[in-house]
Amino acid sequence: MSIAEEWLEIGKIVAAQGLKGELKVYPNSDFPERFEEPGKRWLRRPGKTELETIELLSGRYLAGKGLYVIQIKGITDREQAEQLCDCRLLIPSSDRPHLEEDEFHVPDLLGLEVIDQIRQQAIGRVKDVLPAGNDLLQVELYAVESDDSSSTESTQDKTPPRTVLIPFVKEIVPIVDLKQGRIEVVLPSGLLEL
User: What is the extent of the structural domain holding 173?
Assistant: First the structure.
């Protein structure tokens, strides 16, 4: 089993908070207990594959910021906290909670092909899920072939892939088929032109 199969990333440490070693964490999980309930978690440093066992002492949600502030055993000052920036927090995939219908784990959505349901045409792939009032699917659009057949531009002149944000609500994303690796969307008028 690979690390991706054995472990679930639940958040990323983004900054130190205050002077006493607290850490700001951007969550990849909709389960507050992962950041608020004391206990064992695992830490992966940037560029490393080995995990370190850590003990979460406490945590609280920063309303309006979309972040948690956590305290880890042994991290007692700002300097120690700053050394953990960009580290990822993980839990064993066996701790994955049961989800209700129409609930999904973020890692399961990443990489799914996005299909325009009306035209039955693939438009891109899910690159990220961004928390907001309603979650947003960050979709990297496939390159569109130019209708100008006389174009002599080389492939090196292609623009980088465009991304769009699609609200992850039932009216716009009626079908999520994990087994088939696809999401079907009913796009609001003009969304792809933004």
Answer: 106-146+153-193
Whether residue 8 contacts residue 93, with contact meaning beta carbons closer than 8 Å, is answered with yes
Residue 178 gets the label, from left (phi > 0), alpha (psi -120 to 50) or beta, of: alpha
Alpha carbons 41 and 5: distance in angstroms, whole number? 16
Q: What is the per-residue pLDDT across 132-141, written as a single tens digit (0 to 9) for each?
A: 778 889 999 9
Total number of domains constituting the chain: 2
Residue 23: exposed, middle, or buried by beta-carbon count in 10 A (0-12, 13-18, 19+)? buried
- How far the first Cα of the chain sits from its last, in Å, is 41
Name the nearest CA neighbour of 119 among 165, 173, 178, 185: 185
Rounded to 10 degrees, what is the CA torsion of 131, 91, 126, 30? -30
Taking the C-alpha atoms of residue 102 and residue 174, their distance in angstroms, rounded to an integer, is 10
pTM of the entire predicted model: 0.59
Q: Maximum CA pair distance of the chain? A: 65
pLDDT tens per residue, range 44-76: 999 998 999 999 999 999 888 889 999 999 999
